[in-house]
Amino acid sequence: MKIGVPKEIKNNESRVGMTPAGVFELTKNNHIVFIQSTAGEGSGFFDEDYQSVGGIILKTMEEVYSLADMIVKVKEPVEYEYPLIKPNQIIFTYFHFASSEELTFAMLNSKAVCIAYETVEDAEGTLPLLTPMSEVAGRMAIQQGAKYLEKPIKGRGVLLGGVPGVPPGKVLVLGAGVVGVQAAKMAAGLGAHVTVLDTNLKRLRYVNDIMPSHVVTEFSSEYNIRKHIKDHDLIVGGVLIKGSKAPKLITKEMLKEMRPGTVIVDVAVDQGGCFETTVPTTHENPTYIIDDVIHYCVTNMPGAVPYTSTMALTNVTLPYVLQLANFGWEEACQKDLSLQKGLNIVQGKCVYREIIEAFEWSEKLVP
């Protein structure tokens, strides 16, 4: 199969869909891999690195799309890429369709086969291709939140770890999934007092078992959220409903109950966000302020640490890329039910129920 790896052109996205090690495995299996020139430079991989393992460097994105049977990316295609996508072409990337009806219709109109990293689901019900980026984003949420708590950036002026004689900062984590656990781990490591909320008692028991005593858990309810937002310095939203829009756990009017300079980080922004006031931002302009509350809602947080993120992503996507390349998408999805669950749009039809429900499409009106 001919596989194309274009350069990511989303704002400040420095990751790349495939490392040279991944290209080596594909060429070893007699596949042809086209890499757009300089696609890997942001992650520390250069054209000669790809050429040394059999990759073919092409100058333009247009060439990559026109020659490839399958496109392997990191982020969803942007408007410039829509007309480049061909019917029956496999697009394997993060899509997060539920957050963008425009993107969804563009991919429906392309007649491509869209397989979303974020909905590939294994037998245990986990999301193996979303997990590494969730781990990165959860850890970065604390890193960024701690920075924006600084007074020169309009934060409360709180050091999360405190110092002797001064209590530590307080971090509220909404969701005890991968993002929440990693955020809690990082915050606890800094010495902050951490509260983790979730409706899944099994996950809360897990957090209780693995975290130190200054990480506490509570059942998530509107009452408990309203109680904690009043005195926590940093709030991290890490709630995920697979393939669907995130629930709005903090409303606009609840911001008035927070102290001025509180920082909220919405890791769920790719799925529409779990704060009512969430608006997608970029690494170039990452924050905005509403009611004296700093919002950090960058849609590609792991893109700020592209070397780590690209390596972690290729580690988990490569086995699936190999299956798709070796067998074609139909046979590969028949052989591997987890990959089958990644199918979101197939040749002009939406085949993923959560997307249909997110846009409230009638079954009879599904494009």
Looking at CATH, which topology of the largest domain would you report? Rossmann fold
CATH homologous superfamily (4th level) name of the largest domain? NAD(P)-binding Rossmann-like Domain
Summing up helix and strand content along with how strands pair, one would put the structural category as: alpha/beta
The number of strands is 15
Mean pLDDT: 95
Q: Give the spatial strand order of the biggest sheet.
A: 3-2-1-4-5-6-14-15
Strand content: 15-25%
Distance between the termini: 29 Å
Proper CATH architecture of the largest domain: 3-Layer(aba) Sandwich
Q: Specify the biggest β-sheet.
A: 8 strands, mixed
Order of helices and strands: EHEHEHEEHEHEHEHEHEEEEHHEEH
What is the CATH class name of the largest domain? Answer: Alpha Beta
- Helical content class: 25-40%
Domains, number: 2
Number of helices: 11
Which value, in Å, is the CA radius of gyration?
21 Å
Shape: globular
How do the strands and helices of this protein lay out in sequence?
Layout: E1 2-5, H1 20-28, E2 32-36, H2 47-51, E3 56-58, H3 61-67, E4 70-72, E5 90-93, H4 101-110, E6 113-116, H5 131-148, E7 170-174, H6 178-190, E8 193-198, H7 201-210, E9 215-219, H8 222-229, E10 234-237, E11 263-266, E12 287-290, E13 293-296, H9 306-335, H10 337-340, E14 343-346, E15 349-350, H11 353-358
Parallel strand pairs: 1-2, 1-4, 2-3, 4-5, 5-6, 7-8, 7-10, 8-9, 10-11, 11-13
Antiparallel strand pairs: 6-14, 12-13, 14-15
Protein name: Alanine dehydrogenase
EC number: 1.4.1.1
Family: Belongs to the AlaDH/PNT family.
